[in-house]
Amino acid sequence: MSSLLQSEQTTLGGVNNSHTKVSGLFLGNRIKIIEDVWELVLGQECGQELVSILQKMRSVNSPEGQAFNFLDSEIVQLIEQLELKDAIRAARAFALYFQLINIVEQHYEQRTQQLAYSNNKGLGKQIFKDDEVKDGKASSLRVGSIPIWSDNKNKPEGEGTFHYLFPLLRTLNVPSQLIQRLIDKLDIRLVFTAHPTEIVRHTIRTKQRRIAKIFQQLDRVEESLSEFSGNGEQEKSVVSSWETESLKEQLTEEIRLWWRTDEIHQFKPTVLDEVETTLHYFEDVLFEATPKLYQRFKQALHSSFPYLKPPTFNFCKFGSWVGADRDGNPFCTPEVTWQTACYQRKIVLDKYINITDSLIELLSLSLHWSDVLPELLDSL
Question: Which residues are CB-neighbours of 294 under 8 A, at least 6 positions away?
Fold first, then answer.
């Protein structure tokens, strides 16, 4: 755990942004919250004796989570002394713990990327040096005229984003006609495939997303309540409020319900179950993420090349093999493929219907104050 905190603090060392510093301070706070809630829930569900054993198991490990001389270590003796019921609970407890820590790490990485995106919107005037030398060694190599960074530690902040790419292309004097031709030819097609080893239930993924959203809400609340000194540095203590306590209670209940939920299906998943698992990403992620991707592309392009046209709206397409591939699965029949197509159509139509309903509430225009084309009125 200490290595995680150290690496995150090192990453933040070169970033001169107050919000990113706050995010770095929040990382340790988030891990502490997760550990406290994890121990609280396990104590209430399994008893304090098991929690004490789990704490002892963690204490005999190295900071990186490795047990020294594992076969002769104290942790082996602790495991051997456990009854089968407690051993199963201990395994589940650590599995839950690692998944919770992964959520914290992913949330922090997303937050860092969002801050980098915000910080690099105005990179139009940034100068990219031919070679950056540190400690007598070049930190970048060049293929043609494009810098390829060989050391992740020396990568410029925001590299890999559109708001970094287009100012770089402009600085390198890449012809705008060439960029436009490449944009016009953009045709990205991402195809999903089935993974029989995917055993995480949709219910568990939903709980993971809810926990991640709680962390997002907690960030916003604590940032708004954090006290800053005169020089702009954050005070050591984070101000607490009824909102933060309410969010922590929600987090506790989510983790408690997760603990009481089966991690895997108690039956063999069907092909249609695999279809539902795949379409979950279309329904809950891609419908919202793809327009944001297009908008970021367009904004970054126009900030450096205002006269170039963005790609067409359908430059990024999606497909799926699930429910239609003929790789020898005897259960993937023509009837299943037809049901899959109907399921996909229903998801798309439901999304468009919901968006249309929201537009009805949004576009509250009156004929008294708006001019409407006669053709539109005749079509109604």
Answer: 310, 311, 313, 315, 316
Query: If pLDDT is split at 50, 70 and 90, which confidence band does 94 have?
Result: very high
Between strands 140-143 and 137-138, the pairing is unpaired
**What integer is the mean pLDDT of 240-261?**
89
User: What is the rounded distance in angstroms from the CA atom of residue 259 to the CA atom of residue 355?
Assistant: 35
Which run of H or E residues covers position 307?
Answer: none
61: which strand partners? 67
The model's pLDDT over 171-194, given as tens digits with 9 standing for 90+, comes to: 999 999 999 999 999 999 988 887
pLDDT digits (tens, 9 = 90+) for 111-142: 777 766 666 554 444 434 444 434 444 344 34
Q: State the Cα–Cα distance between residues 378 and 110, nearest whole angstrom.
A: 48
pTM, entire model: 0.67
The alpha helices in 13-83, defined as continuous H runs, are: 18-46, 48-59, 74-81
In angstroms, the CA 271 to CA 323 distance is 6
Structure tokens that stand for 84 in this block: 């089968």
- Kindly give the interhelix angle for 202-225 and 18-46, rounded to the nearest 10 degrees: 130
Provide the 10 A C-beta neighbour count for residue 138.
14
Whole-number Cα distances in Å, 317 to 280, 285, 294, 353: 16, 14, 12, 21
- Each residue of 21-30: pLDDT tens digit? 555 666 777 8
Q: CA neighbours within 13 Å on the CB side: how many for 82? A: 21
Distance CA 117, CA 163 (A): 7
CA 293 – CA 63 distance, rounded (Å) = 38
DSSP 8-state class, residue 70: G
CA distance 183 to 186: 5
